[in-house]
Structure formats: C-alpha cells, structure tokens
Amino acid sequence: MSAIPSWRAGFELEVILGDLGDPRFERELRDGEAMDEASPTFCRAFASKLRERTRRAWSAPTKSPQRPGFYVVPEYGLDPLNWPECRLAGVELLTPPLPLDEAEAVRTELYEAIYEIDGDFNFFANEHTDGCGWHINIDAGDGYRLDPDRFILGVDELLLLANNDRLFSRYTGLQRHAVGVPLLRHLAQDPQGKFLLGTALGNLLDASAGRDKGYAANFGKLLKGYLELRHFSAESFFNGPHLIEQLERIPAAFEVWPAHSHPFEQAFRRKFLLLSRWLVRIRGKLEWDLTHGLVAATGRVHFAGEPLGHLMANGLVELTLYGRGEHEYVATIRDIVLADIPEAVALLALDLAELYNLGVRQRASSNKAFQRAVLQLAGQLRKAPGLSSSAQLDELAKAETLRRAMHPQFYAKAGP
C-alpha cells in the first residue's frame, strides 16, 4: 500500500430535464408525453449545451462507455408516469475520476450550466426529484488499497444517510446490515467476543461486506479500482456544502493505519456485544409466520404477541417494520434468511436506537413493547459515550494527527 493517498472522485448524477429550449423538444413535449427513455438526439443536444457552457468534452455515446469521460446517457430508473407537464426526459451525467478540488469545480460548472439550460427544477427536493441520486465514485490513487473493514469501522453510515434523506431505500443498505447477522451469530457462541481480537474482526467484516448495488457503499466496485458511494441525493449535489465536507469521514476512515485501528475495533466490538446481550433478552418475544403467494411468500413478525413488521420471502427475505399509520413503515433490512429474523430485528433496533440518540426525527414503531425495548437500547448506548458518532469522529482526528506526526515529510509534500 502506498503511504499517502491521492483521493479522486467521479460523479453519476441523475436529473429530470425539460425541453432544453430547443424547438424540436418543445414540440415533442407539447404534442406527446415524457420520454420513457431519453433519446440519443436528446442526449446529444444536452451534451452539446454542456460543452458550450463548461468547455469540457461532454458527449452522448450510444453504447456503454468503455473508458472514463464526460458523458450524457439515458437514465432508465426514473419513471416519467407522473412527472409534471414541463418535464421530458431523465438523464445521467457521468464524469471521470478527478482530484477532489477539480471534482468540486466540475460540480459547480454542472449546476450552473443546468440552471442556465433548464432552470431550478432539479435544485429542490420534491416527489419527482426525490428519486434522483448522486453517486460518488472514489479512489485513492494507484497502489492504495481501500479495505472494507476500515470503512465499516470508521464511517457512521446511518448519520450520513439520514443527513441525505436516503435511509432504508432499496439501493442504500447499510454495510452494518451485511456484516451484522454473521457477527451476531458469532457472538451467540462467543458471548465475550474473545475470538474477535487481533485480526479476527477485520477478517469477518471483509468476508461479509456487501458487494452489490443494494448497499450504499458498493464494495463490488473495488474490483474495478474504486468504491461506489450511493449515500447522496441529487438535492445535495445542488445545495450541499463542498464535496470534501459531504464525504465527511470516509477518506479519513480509509486512511487509518493498522497501528491506530484499535479504538475503532474496540468500539465496534463493544457495540455489538451490547446488542448481542439485548437480543438474548428479547429473542423469546419474537415469532413469525409465512404463507404461500403467487410470486413470493409473505408473512408477519410479532413481538410480545403484537404485529411488528412485514415479511416477504422469495429465496431471500425482506423485513419491514410497521409504523403507526396505515401503510407507514419505519425501517427495512433485505437479503436475510428466515433463520436470521431475530438478528435482523436486532440490527433494525440498533438503527432506530442510534437515530433516536442522534436526534434524527424518525417514525416510531407501532408495537409499543418493541418501541420501549428500542428506547432501553438507546439508553444503554448513551451510557457508553465511546460508542457515539462524535466519539468516532474524535478518534479519526486523533489517528490523522498521529499519522502526520509520524511521517511529516510525506504530508508536507501532499499538502492539507
């Protein structure tokens, strides 16, 4: 691993556009409906306008790009069915990896150009733009390895997703959900966590990390040399602070050296030991059932004899906790198996307890006994201040200070 990372970021930004002030598209919008898929002509027209305003080589390839560049491509995941009459097509804007300051400059160029071309529709969160994402692909330069366990131990994904209003969506699963089930299974046999010392915890986390687009941190992209971050909304692209501020602790977490990782491993282990003991106390209150369906089996989870959440099983299982209103849901975990329902409930309880302690407004569970159990868990977490998000940030700052003190010559060259 190289000693000093050289961070870069590339963007994938989804936007919903109008007629671009182009007579061809004005007629199309007036005479018909929004495009199910942005046409090659539309993508080329928008790329041309971006080229004119940014002086960068924006283009609209008809096939999937084989190398990084500035591209306008159709975005298939945006449903035009209920768009307002002024919207015509959804596109995705792709940029190559760039040093963070240059990436921020491109971001500024883009939102200024989009405002000039299309107005401010994409700048504000609404029922249409809420579905638009801003994915940030990061790497740290040649030879610098991005280890999943460094991210899992050092990044508070829950807070990051809450700040971007991206919690519990289909494509923003927490890495803690991926690693938490096998970790809780382990602790059922190792109640003191004595076999998770040394390199054992890191090995377990690396082996269990989520590696597909269902996770906000998609470690599957590491095979291509970068990490895809799906925590961010398009609204935060247009209105959020500087890119470096939005990335928050992610680069710092990857930069923690093994010699400085003990506080992070200890806090993570202690948190799961606490959760494991909580699960021992409530496990007997859980029960669930499934019934056959035409496409997938469905059922309910009960806690203390009352409904807690909905199950859908089609090979793997999705569990969603009920809120207090009709069709209101509190939290979701996916890709578990039936035998892991108690562990899944515990992981969602941990999410809700930490959101409560962070002061993040969240819907409450309709199951009063479960809600009381979550608040008890939140109280136990508060009694251990070293497990908080702020304590994690403090440790990251300490690790950076130690790193710079040990190798001032490298950091003098690298700059801030």
UniProtKB/TrEMBL annotation:
Keywords assigned by UniProt, alphabetized: Plasmid
Protein name in UniProt: Amidoligase enzyme
Native species: Sphingopyxis fribergensis
